[in-house]
Write a structure and sequence with these properties.
The chain is α/β, with parallel strands linked by helices and 220 residues long. It contains 9 helices and 8 strands. The strands form 2 sheets. A 5-stranded parallel sheet has the order 2-6-1-7-8. It has a 3-stranded antiparallel sheet with strand order 3-4-5, covered by helices on one side. The two termini are 13 Å apart. Bound molecules: 2'-deoxycytidine-5'-monophosphate. 2'-deoxycytidine-5'-monophosphate (DC) binds at residues 15, 37-38, 41-42, 95, 98-99, 102, 128-130, 179, 183.
């Protein structure tokens, strides 16, 4: 990629569509940074989880939160107030609180501003729910990955089993459907493809096939 011009590639889609894995590989192949915006909502949810009462203090807390990308010479990691966000934000519970927090207009406004600040400093593969529709409407390339809820639940089920966890397919499927509904039906920045996004159904594709499709579309 050209050094002088910053590029923005957006990948949106529901949980389990493969967007995180694809976004990371794509960013590496293009030698640019990867921004996981779901992790920002999860970071806010993590802080909220420690508060006794729901959203009361959220506005005040948000104003003291600063997100940035930290480079270790090999990879970019997302930091919240200079602390790298790790596995502590990855639980299903935090994901669900994140999805609730993400309905709050002032949270979206604040995180959108932070995402745009980060993009001033880096070329990005930005992954989330509203990257192509709201945050980076002028992105150079936009993709929307999807797959049936059943396939996404199966992927999550196998992933958990591989990690040695007990997993219940029916529960995972219900959770995925619940979160899809919450993310797609909210008033602000609902989960949907941008009009100019390339929509890819990953149900019958493996990760490298998806990455190849994206690369082909980018390189023309
Ligand atoms: O991608 P994820 O599962 O880590 O995201 C967690 C939640 O955050 C997701 O359910 C919806 C919300 N989210 C959002 O509303 N907008 C984004 N750009 C990214 C995530």
């Amino acid at each position: 990629m050209e050094k002088s011009k910053r590029i923005i590639i957006t990948i949106d889609g529901p949980a389990g569509s493969g967007k995180t894995t694809v976004a990371k590989i794509l960013a590496k192949k293009l030698n640019i940074a990867y921004l996981d915006t779901g992790a920002m909502y999860r970071g806010v949810a993590l802080i909220l989880g420690n508060l006794p009462k729901d959203f009361d203090k959220l506005e005040e807390i948000l104003s003291s939160l600063k997100f940035d990308l930290v480079y270790n010479g090999e990879d970019f990691s997302l930091a919240m107030n200079n602390k790298i966000l790790g596995d502590e934000i990855r639980s299903e519970e935090i994901g669900f609180v994140a999805s609730k927090v993400a309905k709050e207009p002032f949270v979206r406004k604040y995180l959108t501003a932070q995402q745009r600040e980060i993009a001033k400093k880096h070329s990005l593969v930005a992954e989330g729910r509203d990257m192509g529709t709201v945050v980076f409407k002028d992105a150079d390339f936009k993709f929307f990955l999807t797959a049936s809820a059943k396939i996404r639940a199966k992927r999550r089920f196998e992933q958990l089993r591989e990690m040695g966890f007990d997993a219940d397919y029916e529960k995972i499927l219900k959770d995925i459907e619940k979160r899809d509904k919450q993310d797609s039906s909210r008033e602000i920045a609902p989960l949907k493809p941008a009009e100019d996004a390339l929509i890819i159904d990953t149900s019958n594709l493996n990760i490298s096939e998806v990455v190849d499709m994206l690369l082909k579309s980018i390189k023309g």
